[in-house]
Amino acid sequence: MTLRDKIARELEMREMSIRELAALFECSEREVVQHLRHVMRSARARGRRMYVLPALCLKCGAEIRCRRIRSVRKCPECRSTHVMPPRFRIM
Ligand SMILES: [Zn+2]
Fold it and tell me: How far is the CA of 57 from the centre of ligand 1 (A)?
């Protein structure tokens, strides 16, 4: 099973952030982001969908939505770094 398959299988069981996936599979966050782009496409091909739960600023409460798959370290509203990163889940 490839790393990409493992990531997909993990996201079918629970929601995970990019950082959590990188820690779990001992790879870089950059690699995870690249895999997630493909995982998203292949999920769609199998009639499923990868959902992105938006990042949340723990200081001002802003929901931070991104067009692209990436991690979020800073709130665009208040510049706080107390941010819960976006999480991913395949349903
Ligand atoms: Zn904020």
Answer: 5
Confidence of residue 16 (pLDDT cuts 50, 70, 90): very high
Domain ranges of the chain: 3-90
How far apart (Å, rounded) are the C-alpha atoms in residues 9 and 22?
Answer: 14
Cα 20 to averaged position of ligand 1 atoms, centre (Å)? 22
pLDDT digits (tens, 9 = 90+) for 18-60: 999 999 999 999 999 999 999 999 999 999 999 999 999 999 9
- Position 67 scores a pLDDT of 87
